[in-house]
Structures are given as C-alpha cells and as structure tokens.
Amino acid sequence: MKINHLFLILFVIILSACTNQQKLAYLSNLPEAGGPETFIMDIPDYKIQQRDILYITIKAMTPDGSINDFLSPFSRTLGTYTQSEAGQYLYGYDVGSSGDILLPVIGAIRVAGSTLEEARAIIQNEADKIFNNSTVECKLLSFKFTVIGEVRTPGTYINYNNYLTVLEAIGRAGGINDYGRRDKILVVRPVSGGSNTFTLNLQDKNILSSEAYFLLPNDVVIVEPESKKIFNLNLPTYSFVITTVSALITTTLLMINYFK
C-alpha cells in the first residue's frame, strides 16, 4: 500500500511539471475569427548618443558627369568589409564625447541628441555649402541589442534595419526555450543617467501598443524562467530517490515476511 502511495505521489509530481498549450502561445488573446484588429504602435525616434557609429555618405556629381561618394571613395571595394564589426569601427564615423562627428572637408558637426533624420538634415546643410546638388545618407551602424535568459541562442546581435520589435529580437535568438516564460519578458533600456525597465507579456495582444515593443539600440531583453525550471532540472534526481526508496521498502517488506 505504501508503494502505491509513493507511485501516486510520483505521478502527481510529474503531472504538475507538465506545460499546457496556453503557456506556449504568443498573443493568445487575439480573436480567432472576424475582421482585422488595429493597434496603435508607438515607434520611437532614437536619439544619437556618444559612442554611436554612423554610416554617412555624401554623393554629388563631378564636372565630368559621374556621381562620387566624397566621403568613401573606396566604398565599393570595402562594401563587404564594412558589414563586419571591425569594418564599422574603422570606416564608420563615431560620435565623440563632445557629441560631434568629424567629417573630411566639412569638419566637426554636432549630432548627439538628434534623430537620424535630423542629423542627416544637419549634414546636408553643411554639405550644400561645399558640394553642388549633393545627397546625404545617414544610418546607424551600432544598433546592437542583447537577448539573454531562457532563449536558445542568447547573445548580442546587430540590427541592420531601421526598426526592431521584441518579437523579432527573440526570434533572432532562436526563440524562447522550454523553460522560458512568455508572460514575463523584461526589457532594460539604457537612458541618460540610468536605465528604464519594461515588463512585457508576449501572450497579451496589448504588447503591440507597448512603449517597449519596438527596441532601441543597446536594449537588453531578458526572458524570465518558469518557476518550475529548477524542479524540472532536478526531476531525474527526484525520480531516482523515490525509486530507490520504493525498492528499499519493497526489499524490507519481503525480508520481514520471509523471516516471520
């Protein structure tokens, strides 16, 4: 009878460690049928900061009718190399501690605190004083983000698009593993003088309107573990202990019956 109780306890423990389908779903409260549902998304405008690295080109027509990039005359041959981190550091324009970038011919330009579009307009205004009919392009090269916690491939990644959502970031990290919580995702965002934190629920459709749904450079995404992760990791040990105890009790009862 005691053995049956032990196996019953083991069965209850294993059953409690199971995960239902509801916990594995994303945006689970979206309507399954009906018309489309609209969400107002707040896409943040990133402000350029010190130590950012910018990709800048100034293209203009030369007297012979050809179009040249006056900042990167060798950009065609270095195009592949500048996609690497080392290439970005060597051939991108870094924002110094003063908030300025130093461009050939043009000189120092203050860009810290400006959006990319505002920085492009500032550089365009300076370029027009030197080049005729020039076109300026300005992009952020140092859009790094980090995903850690209960994902399959945690690490730091580089985004080459203008925008990045938290769902895309987790997807880049291989998705949430078997022990990750989809209802508790922490986003840590560095700001001037500290950090802001946001807690997101990937199972709730309202995440699409969250301030932290779109990530900013240097954001850190932390996927929290399920509370039963430690139990699941130790389940083989628990099973071994219960099996051993059951065997000992069985052996003891057999010996008692034998010597009666």
Can you offer a commentary on this structure?
Helix content is 29%, strand content 24%. It is an alpha+beta fold. It has three domains: 47 residues; 101 residues, Outer membrane lipoprotein wza fold like (Roll); 88 residues, wza like domain (wza like fold, 2-Layer Sandwich), CATH 3.30.1950. The strands form three sheets. The protein has a five-stranded mixed beta sheet, covered by helices on one side. Strands 1, 2, 3 and 6 form a four-stranded antiparallel beta sheet that branches. Helix 1 runs antiparallel to helix 6. The radius of gyration is 29 Å and the shape is elongated. The chain starts with a helix and ends with a helix. About 3% of the residues have low confidence.
